[in-house]
């Protein structure tokens, strides 16, 4: 059976997130975007409202939402401010590796405190010298007795400067490429951990992004996630679970860009007519709607598959790729409908245009999603039509 009908509970959850986004985020979105200040009060309220740590299971104190439920929340938050959504959802990115392979002990120790009071957890594979090529991680870990010693520099880490926990990916000294990558939960207060200044970005300015530096950081063996050498698979498994959220971010941003463009076109006049009466404008808005619907469906399907326990990284990559690429087009066209005013920072569309670009970059660039999908098509996909 295929069913696209949301349950009453899901509609209530979406409406709660929508109300929060409209009342608590939208009114202060431009202020935080301009100042670059980290909007902690928003996260305090979101945490209280149960709109953070969406995937943490109930037994560890979280709301235990499924992937599809989470996508409903994420779309609404991103519709108000994609930057706020990035930092808010980064806790789900950071906790995903622990949810996926952590022991019961690790889940109790690291996940439960996140649900008790506002705290951030960051996910850190990227480094100054690599982002796409996760097997190229240079940070090292050395097993000595009942602990590991970590060294290296992590870069581009969302919430890097505000997090109290990091999931750090590092390689066993002397190993190369995929083999030997390990993952550790590292509390920020551990000696040898420091952070860089928040980076000044094109968009998503309400989200903190920065460096995490590790200098002879001693981490107990019990903080290692899974076995030695599991790091690469764990990172990929995490992305399979979190990439649909980028599809949901994109859907929220696209929906808002389209709505602002519709509102603007209905009142702006040119050549003695509302610009909404011009077919060129109508075509752009129709495309925006169809593409937004398509990216939502891909996102929901990928999330639904995850909820069914189906491991399908291709579905996740498709949701991320289509969401990221089409959002860039939608934000560009929406800005075009504003004409010159779209180029001004005092209209919301300029911010959405800047924010849209990030979806093509983080959690695997669009090129990497195409690489993942095309590798599947040439290696595993069975053609129905034989011959050529
Ligand atoms: C705001 C922001 C937040 C981020 N948050 C986090 C975070 O929380 N945690 C974290 O670990 N990382 C994070 N990142 C890092 C992000 O995941 C990387 O920037 C991204 O994966 C790309 O890596 P890179 O910047 O090193 O680019 P590179 O990997 O150097 O790529 C440069 C260009 O080459 C292309 N390219 C690379 N390899 C291939 C290939 N095989 N085929 C075709 N094209 C290729 C890329 O698509 C890109 O266009 C964040 C980045 C940003 C900007």
How would you sum up this structure, described in words?
The protein is α+β, with helices and mostly antiparallel strands. The chain has three domains: 8-119, Butyryl-Coa Dehydrogenase, subunit A, domain 1 (Orthogonal Bundle), CATH 1.10.540.10; 122-228, Butyryl-CoA Dehydrogenase, subunit A, domain 2 (Beta Barrel), CATH 2.40.110; 232-379, Up-down Bundle (Butyryl-CoA Dehydrogenase, subunit A, domain 3), CATH 1.20.140. The protein is 51% helix and 15% strand. The strands form two sheets. Strands 1, 2, 3, 4, 5, 6, 7 and 8 form an eight-stranded mixed β-sheet that branches. A two-stranded antiparallel ribbon has the order 9-10. Helix 4 packs antiparallel against helix 6 and helix 6 packs antiparallel against helix 9. The longest helix has 37 residues, at 231-267. It is globular. The relative contact order is 0.11. The model has no long low-confidence stretch (mean pLDDT 97). The chain binds flavin-adenine dinucleotide. Residues 90, 122-126, 130-132, 156-158, 201, 204, 209, 358, 361-365, 367-368, 371 line the site of flavin-adenine dinucleotide (FAD).
Which characteristics define this entry?
388 residues; alpha+beta; Butyryl-Coa Dehydrogenase, subunit A, domain 1; Butyryl-CoA Dehydrogenase, subunit A, domain 2; Butyryl-CoA Dehydrogenase, subunit A, domain 3; eight-stranded mixed sheet; two-stranded antiparallel ribbon; 10 helices; binds flavin-adenine dinucleotide
Number of helices: 10
Tally of DSSP β-strands: 10
| Structural class computed from helices and strand pairing | alpha+beta
Bound molecules: flavin-adenine dinucleotide
CATH topology of the largest domain: Butyryl-CoA Dehydrogenase, subunit A, domain 3
CATH superfamily of the largest domain: Butyryl-CoA Dehydrogenase, subunit A, domain 3
Shape: globular
Instruction: Please give the largest β-sheet.
Output: 8 strands, mixed
Q: At the first level of CATH, what is the class of the largest domain?
A: Mainly Alpha
Poorly predicted regions are none
Fraction of residues in H or I helices: 40-55%
Mean pLDDT score, rounded?
97
Q: How many structural units, i.e. domains?
A: 3
Question: What is the string of SSEs from the N terminus onward?
Answer: HHHHHEEEEEEEEHEEHHHH
* CATH-derived architecture of the largest domain: Up-down Bundle
**Alpha carbon gap, first and last residue:** 34 Å
Note the beta-strand portion: 5-15%
Rg result: 21 Å
